[in-house]
Design brief:
The strands form four sheets. A five-stranded antiparallel sheet has the order 1-2-5-6-13, with no helix packed on it. The chain has a four-stranded antiparallel sheet with strand order 3-4-7-12, with no helix packed on it. Strands 8-11 form a two-stranded antiparallel ribbon. Helices cover 14% and strands 38% of the residues. Strand 9 (129-132) and strand 10 (140-142) form a beta hairpin. The protein has helices at 3-19, 35-41; strands at 27-32, 47-53, 56-57, 80-85, 88-94, 105-111, 114-119, 122-125, 129-132, 140-142, 147-150, 153-155, 161-165. The chain is mostly beta strands.
Length: 168
């Protein structure tokens, strides 16, 4: 192979890799198969359709250095994670709703898709020593060590609608 041929092959591979971007899904739709319940028990089974969330991990918070501190803050950064809770629909037959067979109805629970965001806990740790002190012959002084935790967060607003329908 010549240098020109190697370079052309490399550029072709890079172009193909750039064109083939992976499809990222917020949630994967799933239908729960409950048909076996109907055949074994002889009753009408509920229908369940939902989405399995696919968490997406974000970039952790970058540590910052402050003057006079030997360790960065935060020492253990919090990592953001986001996911979408998929649309969930559960329907089930409700027989003899008003005490009569002709009033059979259907109950439903519908939870629309919503985005959830979370942050893992982090840690802040202070050094037990100060920076080198010129008045102490260049030796660091002792300080009280500091320890702190960054609380985890969970942000989102999942909702659901419960319904009951009867035939007219």
């Amino acid at each position: 192979m010549t240098a020109r041929g190697s370079f052309a092959a490399l550029m072709t591979c890079m172009a193909a890799a750039g064109a083939a971007t992976p499809a990222v899904a917020d949630s994967v739709p799933v239908g729960v198969p409950l048909e076996a319940v109907e055949t074994t028990l002889g009753v009408e089974a509920p229908r369940v359709a939902t989405g399995v969330p696919v968490p997406v991990v974000g970039a952790p918070e970058a540590p910052r250095f402050h003057s006079g501190d030997m360790l960065p803050s935060p020492l253990l950064p919090a990592v953001p994670i986001a996911t979408e809770l998929g649309n969930t629909l559960i329907t089930s037959p409700v027989p003899n709703l008003l005490g009569e067979p002709e009033t059979d109805g259907e109950g439903s629970l519908d939870a629309p898709a919503t985005t959830m965001r979370a942050r893992t806990p982090g840690a802040i740790l202070g050094s037990p020593l100060t920076m080198p002190d010129g008045s102490n012959f260049g030796l660091p002084n002792l300080t009280k060590p500091k320890l702190g935790l960054i609380a985890p967060e969970l942000v989102g607003a999942p909702t659901a609608l419960l319904g009951l329908g009867t035939p007219r």
